[in-house]
Design brief:
181 residues, mainly alpha, 7 helices, elongated
Length: 181
C-alpha cells in the first residue's frame, strides 16, 4: 500500500466519522426538543388525556420519520475513496488532482509508468489536512437542548417522569370519571 492510499483512507474515515457524529447530534437535539415541547404541552393541558395521547403519538411518528431521514441522509453523504481523494487534493491545494488520478490508476495493473505516478502522489500526499468544521454548526443547538432538558428535569422532576411515562404509552389512557355526586 502506498502512502497516498493511507492518507486518503484517513481522510475518508475522519470525514465519515464526523458526518455520523454530526447527524447523531442533530437527531438527539431534535429528539430532546420534541420531548421538551411535549413536556410543556403536558404541563399545560394535563386534563385532556386523549388529545395528549394523539399529540404524543404524532411526536413518536415524527421522531421515527426523522430517524429514517437522518439514517438515509448519512448514508447518502458518506465519502467514497474517490471523493476523499478529491477532498485531499483540494485540502492540499493540488490543481493537478494528483491523488485522485493516482487512486484511479491504482485500479489498473502495475507497470513502471504507474509507479512513477504513485511516487509523485506519495510526495504530494502530505497529511496537512485542515480542520473540517462539520460538527460545529450542530454542536450549539445540541448543547442548548441538552441544557434545557437538564434544567427542566431539575426544576420539575415529577412532571418530567410523568411526561416520560405518558410518552411511553401504547394505548390511550382511560378517562377517570367521578364516582360520587
Amino acid at each position: 500500500m502506498h502512502k497516498f492510499q493511507s492518507i486518503i483512507r484517513q481522510i475518508q474515515t475522519a470525514v465519515n466519522v464526523k458526518l455520523v457524529l454530526k447527524n447523531l447530534f442533530a437527531f438527539t437535539a431534535l429528539l430532546l426538543l420534541s420531548f421538551n415541547i411535549f413536556l410543556v404541552a403536558f404541563g399545560l393541558t394535563e386534563g385532556h388525556l386523549s388529545e395528549l395521547f394523539l399529540f404524543a403519538l404524532s411526536i413518536k411518528i415524527f421522531i421515527a420519520l426523522m430517524l429514517l431521514f437522518y439514517v438515509l441522509q448519512t448514508n447518502k453523504n458518506l465519502l467514497s475513496k474517490f471523493q476523499a481523494a478529491k477532498l485531499a487534493d483540494r485540502l492540499n491545494e493540488d490543481k493537478d488532482d494528483t491523488l485522485q488520478n493516482a487512486l484511479e490508476l491504482s485500479q489498473q495493473k502495475d507497470n513502471e509508468f504507474l509507479e512513477l505516478i504513485f511516487e509523485e502522489a506519495d510526495k504530494v500526499a502530505l497529511p496537512k489536512t485542515k480542520k473540517l468544521h462539520i460538527i460545529k454548526p450542530v454542536l450549539l443547538p445540541f448543547i442548548v437542548t441538552v441544557c434545557i432538558t437538564i434544567l427542566a428535569f431539575a426544576i420539575q422532576k415529577p412532571l418530567f417522569t410523568e411526561t416520560f411515562e405518558f410518552m411511553k404509552l401504547n394505548k390511550a389512557p382511560k378517562a377517570a370519571h367521578k364516582t360520587f355526586v
